[in-house]
Amino acid sequence: MTQMKYSIGLLMLLAALGIGISAVSPSDSEPKDERPNIIIFMADDMGYADVGFTGAQDIQTPNLDQLAANGVVFRQGYVNHAFCGPSRAALLSGRYPYRFGFETNPAYDPANPHLGISVDETLFPARLQTAGYTTGAVGKWHLGAASEFHPLNRGFDYFYGFLGGGHDYFKIDLKQEVWEAYKQGLERNGRPAGFDGYLTTALSQDAAQFVKDNKDDPFFLYVAYNAPHQPLQAPKEDIARYAHIEDKKRRTYAAMIDVMDRGIGEVVQALKEQGIYDNTLIFFLSDNGGPQPNPKTGKGGNASSNEPFRGGKGNFYDGGVHVPFLAHWPAKFKPMVYDFPVHSLDIGRTAVELAGGDPTSAHAMEGVNLVPFVTGKKSQAPHEGIFWRGGNGKQWSILASDGTKHLKDKDSKEPQLFFLPEDVSEAHDRMADHPKRAKKLRAQWEDWDEQNIPNTLMGYKEYHRQRALFYQQAIMGQEER
Ligand SMILES: [Ca+2]
Question: Residues in the chain with pLDDT < 50?
Fold first, then answer.
């Protein structure tokens, strides 16, 4: 940068002196890097039907709707797990998380080098770094809190946010018990940081600043909102704007999404102001479906709607894994609805191929580059099948490209078979009519499963229970001595 400023200054001086210049300096003759900037906006625990472009009537999301209207809406967009951690591990590695045993949420413990995403995995932002991109992450991490899992050690040049699975939207309280760290401080590039006001807005402002700071060369920015994940909290004035929603819980939930949408609008505005809007590829998705109340007690959930789908967060029914999913790139994509199933593994693969990076070195990424599919160069379905695995293999699911889905969900006693194009709500089990089809799909799933390993992570509830017990016993032991 300094060198370039100097060169331009020198050229101006020479021109002012009337000295003819026949050659320009090498830095001025370098062709502009035409590779796109890439941004992923990810919502957390947002219901399928809770943005305008997927049908919300009672929540305003004008900025996302604008991206959808001018971009590619993936009608069958899936994430690779039904809850936070594994879904994010899949997105950022570009691989099924079951390949490396990431099948549950890692507990928050900065001192534990086992509770996070395998150090043998290359996250795709690291592939982008190698290809010359500047990479930033803002918001929720949830892939491990120890240093070997830290964003700055796994492919990001910049990080502002928190390492756990969620955060209070207004408060930092360092005196609180650590537990899952919802009130711990934030950090910026490894140093303690805070936020003023409402967390979602602070994350958006930081993301917009990253855009301004990195406008000159291709960048990748991962904006991982924790909104609208619990705790349900939003600014009073935004909740008041949703006074027409009777359910108090949904009123706050709606305000949380509204503020997130406005923040996305701010980042888009920053792209426009810097003149880089046209050549920035934006993805938006939720990390999993909206959590639903317990059917027996009616308690729980975040007042989200996954209509018209069955189930929610934690299920392999579409309510858990079928999410709002769009891609927007004015320079290359025409507005359209894309019909074949795609999944979040495709995002990283697309990014790395656009950057001219290496997607196949160990361990090779598993998604496809979506560009030829949405520009019409490839007309076939991108995936023969999309696969899920949970409960260490006790739950499983496969979705074929024609929309046939065969699964054993945690909430079903027996495996089921659905034909989604005629039955998006998964209400009519077709197992009895199509046993051969089911058998074939199950065999396909088993082939895929051969490359998976058992879950390596302990769930956070059990981990904290055992940790507390360990310290309790240690203290008792000391007292006895
Ligand atoms: Ca989530």
Answer: 1-26
Cα–Cα nearest to 381, from 367, 402, 366 = 402
**pLDDT (tens digit, 9 = 90+) per residue, 335-357?**
999 999 999 999 999 999 999 99
Q: Which of 81, 142, 167, 383 is catalytic?
A: 142
Using alpha carbons, list the distances in angstroms from residue 317 to 95, 219, 405, 409: 21, 35, 9, 7
> What's the pLDDT at 27?
54
pLDDT at 177: 76
Selected catalytic residue, list 84, 167, 328, 406: 84
Q: Which structural domain, as residue segments, surrounds residue 154?
A: 37-374
Give the DSSP per-residue string, 42-77.
EESS--TTSSGGGT-SSS--HHHHHHHHTSEEETTE
Q: Is 464 tagged catalytic?
A: no
pLDDT of residue 462: 87
pTM above 0.90, yes or no: yes
Instruction: Tell me which DSSP letter residue 400 carries.
Output: E
Give the CATH number of the domain where residue 60 resides.
3.40.720.10
- Clarify whether 434 is annotated catalytic: no
- Asked whether residue 226 falls in the same domain as residue 353, the answer is yes
pLDDT, residue 116, reads: 97
Six-digit token string for 383: 């995936």
Distances in whole angstroms, Cα of residue 456 to Cα of each of 101, 153, 165, 453: 5, 21, 18, 8
Residue 297 sits in the same domain as residue 343: yes
> CA dist 352 to 31, 93, 344, 347, 369, Å?
21, 11, 14, 9, 9
| Residue 259, in any domain of the structure | yes
